[in-house]
Amino acid sequence: MSFLFAFFRKNKEDDYETILASLAADIQKRQTKLADIRLRERRSTLFVTLYTFIAWVVYVALWYTGALPSLAGYYRNFRVEKAVKGLPVVVGPIIILFIRRIVQIWYTRKGDAEEKTLQKLMKEQRTKVEEIKKKTNYYSTRELLQRYDENSPASSPLRQRIVVQPQGTPGTPTRPSNGGTGSAVLNTPQNQAAVPISPPQPPLGPSRKQWYDKLADAVLGDDDQARFALICEQCFAHNGLVKESVWEETQYVCPKCNHFNPSRRSNKQGIRAPPQAVGPRSPVMQVIPPTPPHVHQERQGPPTQERSEPVEPESNLMEVDQS
């Protein structure tokens, strides 16, 4: 009986697929919740700023036109009454900024707490992945394959699929190589049979932006959630954020692995120009402006006209043999 209990307990502890799937689902929920908190922060900041500003403008208009109720019952002095009525006109903008700052601090604390929980889950996920690698002898197997396998690992279809897969969503705020090591566990058939990890479901996005969100972007500036992450296709490192308008035209050199990442438009056109020599710690980023059609015609140049030598006109006379 003890053998059976130990067997079932071991299977329960080694059920890495369920553990990783649960962690991935929790991470997706936390990411969605964090995005909602950031979006609600911008909405609340916008509404508080607009409402308090409108109230201040109405008060200033009433004060300027003299429509405010008299305070003669409390203050017999006219100068004191005038100063009391004019005080909100001067202090109003300071109060607006103070209330706005309180709202931002409130949502920032909520977002920081959610982000700490998210980082904790991601760290736990990386720990589980490393534990799977050690139990399945991933590193030793990879070293043996690299040492004795005649075929290059980069030429295998599985290796190409793993490398190309992160390029499908370079704009999503994904994690670099630390978080992407989960897909590398499936390199060997031994690991595939031991841990059949199912791909995680795509996370649910935050609430759809409304017209007031666009107004908030115009008043408060662009949100980081509306930007696209630059993920290196070689080492999967995060190289900053760019705007959506220039994302497809951005090409850069990864400062960590010195790998040249062409723009999305260049990948579509099949153009992959190597960059200039760059140091390993000097990031290079370049935005390729869209080329109008007439520029391509100018680069090709005008059609060349072949020069032909003048041809002598054929004589209409026929030579007659007089012999």
From TrEMBL:
Pfam families in the record: Zn_ribbon_10
Coiled coil region boundaries: none
Lunapark zinc ribbon domain location: 211-261
Membrane topology: Multi-pass membrane protein
GO terms for cellular component: endoplasmic reticulum tubular network membrane
Keyword presence, Metal-binding: yes
Record key words, sorted: Endoplasmic reticulum, Membrane, Metal-binding, Transmembrane, Transmembrane helix, Zinc, Zinc-finger
Compartment annotation: Endoplasmic reticulum membrane
Segments of this protein annotated with the region Disordered: 165-187, 261-323
Function (record text): Plays a role in determining ER morphology.
Family as reported in the entry's similarity comment: Belongs to the lunapark family.
Protein's name according to its UniProt entry: Endoplasmic reticulum junction formation protein lunapark
Organism lineage: Eukaryota, Fungi, Dikarya, Basidiomycota, Agaricomycotina
